[in-house]
Each structure stands twice: as C-alpha cells, then as structure tokens.
C-alpha cells in the first residue's frame, strides 16, 4: 500500500475515534444533567432515543453507501438495458412519422416512392424483422470462409461458394433462444481495384451500414484502408467484432503479437473482448508419410461470442439499427426537399433579376446608389420565403429588402458590381455601350446576389448565422464574381438586355442618351462617386452636377 494512503487511513481513524469520544462524552454529560435536574426515567428514555437515532443514522449511511458502491451501477445498467430498445423503437417510430410528412413535399415521383418503400421496410423490420449479421472486410481476408464455417458449424451445411463475392450473398439460420431469424450476409471486398471494384466496395459499405451486428474480418494487422471504415462504422453505433482470421498460418508467438496489435489499434472504439482469433478454413498439413491432414475449423470462440451477443443484446441491436436507418432516411428526405426548394428559389431569383434589369435599362435610375434598392425586390423576398414555408407579408418583405440593400451599399458591392459588369461587357462586346444598359445588367447582378443571400437566410430557418448578413452577402458576391459564372451571366445579359435595348434605341430618339467608352475608366466615374466606407442611407449625398 502506498505511504500516502496509509497516512490518510491513520488520520481518518484518529478523527473518527476523536468524534466517537466526543459523542460519548456529550451524551454522558447530557444524561447526567437531565437525571439531576429532572426525573431519572426521563433521562433513561432520552438516552435510548439518542442511541436509536444514532444507530439509524449509521445504518442509513451504510445502506446507501453499499447501494451506491455495489448495487447502483448494476441496477442502473439493468434499467438502461431494459429501456433502450423501447425508447429507441419509439424514437424510430417518431422519426418515421416525420419522414412520411416530409415525403409528401417531394415532387420527384421516383424519389418519393423510393423513400416510401424504404420507410415501409424499416417499419416491417421494427415489428418482425430479422437480425442481420454482416461479414465485412477486404477480399483476401477470408470472409466467405467465415460464412462457410459459421453455416457448417451452426446448421450443418455449407452454402457459400468460394471465391470472390460480387454481390452481397445472404444465408438464413435460426439460433435456439431467439425468436427472430438470423441473416448472415457476405459482402464484396472493400478496397478492390480493377473494373467494378469501386462499385462493389460501395455496395459493401452500404450493407455494413445496415447491419445489426458487424463482423470485420482481417488476416493480419489492420491497414489504414481497413482501420478507417471500421472506426467510422463503430462510431456510427454499429456493434462490431474484429475477427482475426487465418491464424493457422502463424506461429503461436506471431499470432499473439498480431492479436495484441489489433486490440491496441481498435482500443478506442472496440473492446478487447470483441477482438477474436479464428481459423475458418485451415490449410492442409503434410504428414511425414506423405498424406495430408485437414484440421477442423477453429470457430467456436466466434460462435459463442455471436450467440452471447444476440441472446443478450439482439433486440437492442435491432432497435439501434432501426433508429439509425430511420435517421439516415430522414436526412435523405430533408436533403431532397432542400435541393427541390433550392431549384425553385433559384428560378424565382433568375426571373426577378431579368425583370428588374429590363425595367431599369429602359427607365434608368437618376442615381446609381438606388440600384441596390431597386435590385432587392420585396416581392422576390416574399416568394422565396413561401417556398421555405415562411409566410411573410409585404411589410416584412420590404423590411428585409431594405436591410440587405443597405448592406450592399455599405460594403461597396454596388461599385464593385458596376466595375465588374463594365469590364466584362467591354471584353465581350468591345464597343460603346449605353449607360442604361450597364445600370440594367448591374441591377440583375445585384438582384442575384441579394436573392442567393436570402436563399441562405431561409435555408437556415431565417437566421443569418454567426457572421450576420454582412458575411452572407460578401460570400455570395465572391461566389458570383468567378470568371466561369461571369462569362455565362454576361452572355445571358447580352441576349436579354443589350440586344432588346439596341432594338428599342433604333426606333426612339437618342438625343438624351449617355454613352460610355468602356476602355476609359474616367468615363464611368459618375457611377462610382460614393465612398463605400460611408453609409449613404444615413448620410444621403447628391450626384455630381455632370451626371
């Protein structure tokens, strides 16, 4: 025993003895005082009551100490084990109900029917499904040999053909003491190269994520390509066993060394008791007389482990898996709905950007600063909100539009948009373009930035995020100034704004048109008079006289 522990015990015993001496002295003094001042019978009664109370306190302390120290964890664990399947089954049912409501919002008929079918399969498995034991690992680890060995030992027959498993093969068996049927599923090998290797690996991972119990088979120490998928599956909540196969190929010392290495590598997510060494298909042994001998498969440790887990945790494993599958299905439904809403919202933004561009090009604004206000259309905000289930009135739409328009102006994005559009038009056309065309196309560009910013706002449940509206708008501006997007945007602008505007100008008076030579930066200076560091909404300024 360490010296400091001995010292603590001695000090504790001394304190307890001192308290006991003090307690006995105090009771004796109290008894003598009561006996001298009152009736001795009353003193005896008081003494009995004090001793009884003291005994009750000691008993209560010892009882709850033992309950906490020895019985608390076991009782808590038993209650936990009993309640987990019920709670998780209830959570899965709740999740499935939410999925059914989400599915009704999906417009893609094929995707909707696929989700409905998968949710029905999960519901069926919740009530009377089988326990799925999935054999997972690389192609050379001997997974099919493990399947053959399990089937042969447990039911007396071998069904799995030897060789490469192309698709998942399923075998059925019954285990005494279990009401549910057991499905042994042999998966394709992971990490295969060549034609179809990636497809088979993906199929294997899909089957593994649907497993109630996962048997990860290796034939040596874990490689990184094996460790990562095993860790990911374990962290998903998959009950996993690590199976060290082909131990007959190693000496006893080498086998123990590899087994210890495996336990160390997976110690963070798999218990050492769940790392099991087997020989599913031992190699032939050449005898001295020239004959060969086939050893029996060494599978009993694995069989006993599987039987123990399924009998003790079978219903809990199913509840875990069903809850996981329902959650993944819900995530997929939300992803489909989000993509659907995104496509619808982008169509609205696209429509309003060219409507605004045409209107401003025909009737340009007297000051460029008002481009931001004109670009952010309140009706567009209301329609985007409706797609995301947010019913906004026009007053709220105008409030949001004004807030974002102020942000566009204060960040200098209006000036940046004019420069970007003017430069791009000069590069694509190389001729003189009227100022009203630049205004119209800039308005379309600003409308797109505003619309995409509002899409992010509604996707995040009407929240601009930690960085606020400024960060969202800046991010959208950076995303929409990339060369590839700008080229496509300008091509659309030429077809939708420049060509109709030229046609309109050819039949109208042109005395009051303002022309800009795009290769002279000074000529677009009137559009750029505002200092981006100032907020023009709070300090309005008038354009120069030469506007």
From TrEMBL:
<keyword id="KW-0812">Transmembrane</keyword>
<protein>
    <recommendedName>
        <fullName>G domain-containing protein</fullName>
    </recommendedName>
</protein>
<feature type="transmembrane region" description="Helical">
    <location>
        <begin position="6"/>
        <end position="31"/>
    </location>
</feature>
<feature type="region of interest" description="Disordered">
    <location>
        <begin position="526"/>
        <end position="547"/>
    </location>
</feature>
<keyword id="KW-0472">Membrane</keyword>
<keyword id="KW-1133">Transmembrane helix</keyword>
<dbReference type="Pfam" id="PF01926">
    <property type="entry name" value="MMR_HSR1"/>
</dbReference>
<dbReference type="InterPro" id="IPR021147">
    <property type="entry name" value="DUF697"/>
</dbReference>
<dbReference type="InterPro" id="IPR027417">
    <property type="entry name" value="P-loop_NTPase"/>
</dbReference>
<feature type="domain" description="G">
    <location>
        <begin position="132"/>
        <end position="246"/>
    </location>
</feature>
<dbReference type="Pfam" id="PF05128">
    <property type="entry name" value="DUF697"/>
</dbReference>
<feature type="transmembrane region" description="Helical">
    <location>
        <begin position="43"/>
        <end position="65"/>
    </location>
</feature>
<feature type="compositionally biased region" description="Basic and acidic residues">
    <location>
        <begin position="538"/>
        <end position="547"/>
    </location>
</feature>
<dbReference type="InterPro" id="IPR006073">
    <property type="entry name" value="GTP-bd"/>
</dbReference>
């Amino acid at each position: 025993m360490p010296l400091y522990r001995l010292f603590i015990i001695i000090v504790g015993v001394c304190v307890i003895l001192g308290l006991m001496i003090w307690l006995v002295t105090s009771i004796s003094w109290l008894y003598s005082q009561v006996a001298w001042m009152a009736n001795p019978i009353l003193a005896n009664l008081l003494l009995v009551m004090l001793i009884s109370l003291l005994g009750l306190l000691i008993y209560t302390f010892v009882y709850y100490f033992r309950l906490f120290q020895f019985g608390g964890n076991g009782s808590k664990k038993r209650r936990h084990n009993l309640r987990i399947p019920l709670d998780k089954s209830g959570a899965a049912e709740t999740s499935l109900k939410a999925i059914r409501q989400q599915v009704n919002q999906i417009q893609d008929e094929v995707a909707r029917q696929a989700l409905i079918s998968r949710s029905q399969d999960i519901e069926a498995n919740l009530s009377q499904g089988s326990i799925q034991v999935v054999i997972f690992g690389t192609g050379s680890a001997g997974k099919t040999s493990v399947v053959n060995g399990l089937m042969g030992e447990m039911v007396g027959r071998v069904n799995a053909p030897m060789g490469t498993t192309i698709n998942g093969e399923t075998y059925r068996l019954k285990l005494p003491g279990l009401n549910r049927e057991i499905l042994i599923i042999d998966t394709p090998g992971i990490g295969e190269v060549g034609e179809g290797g990636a497809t088979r690996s993906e199929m294997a991972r899909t089957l593994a994520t649907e497993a109630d119990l996962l048997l990860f088979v290796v034939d040596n120490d874990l490689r990184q390509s094996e460790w990562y998928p095993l860790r990911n599956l374990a962290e998903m909540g998959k009950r996993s066993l690590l199976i060290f196969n082909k131990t007959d190929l190693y000496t006893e010392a080498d086998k123990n060394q590899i087994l210890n290495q495996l336990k160390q590598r997976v110690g963070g997510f798999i218990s050492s008791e769940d790392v099991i060494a087997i020989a599913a298909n031992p190699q032939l042994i050449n005898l001295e007389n020239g004959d060969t001998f086939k050893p029996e498969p060494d599978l009993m440790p694995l069989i006993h482990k599987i039987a123990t887990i399924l009998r003790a945790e079978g219903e809990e494993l199913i509840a875990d898996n069903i809850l996981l599958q329902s959650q993944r299905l819900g995530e997929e439904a939300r992803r489909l709905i989000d993509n659907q809403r995104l496509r619808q919202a982008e169509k609205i933004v696209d429509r309003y950007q060219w409507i605004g561009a045409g209107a401003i090009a025909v009737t340009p604004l007297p000051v460029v600063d008002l481009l931001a206000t004109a670009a952010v259309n309140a009706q567009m905000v209301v329609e985007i909100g409706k797609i995301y289930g947010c019913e906004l009135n026009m007053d709220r739409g105008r409030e949001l539009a004004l807030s974002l328009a102020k942000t566009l102006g204060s960040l200098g994005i209006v000036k940046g948009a004019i420069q970007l559009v003017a430069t791009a038009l000069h590069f694509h056309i190389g001729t003189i373009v009227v100022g009203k065309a630049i205004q119209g196309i800039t308005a379309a560009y600003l409308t797109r930035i505003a619309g995409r910013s509002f899409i992010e706002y509604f996707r995040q449940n009407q929240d601009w995020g930690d960085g606020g509206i400024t960060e969202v708008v800046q991010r959208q501006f950076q995303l929409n100034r990339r060369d590839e997007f700008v080229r496509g945007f300008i091509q659309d602008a030429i077809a939708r704004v420049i060509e109709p505007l030229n046609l309109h100008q050819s039949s109208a008076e042109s005395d009051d048109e303002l022309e800009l030579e795009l290769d002279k930066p000074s000529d677009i200076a009137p559009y750029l008079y505002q200092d981006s560091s100032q907020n023009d909404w709070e300090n309005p300024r008038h354009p120069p006289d030469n506007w």
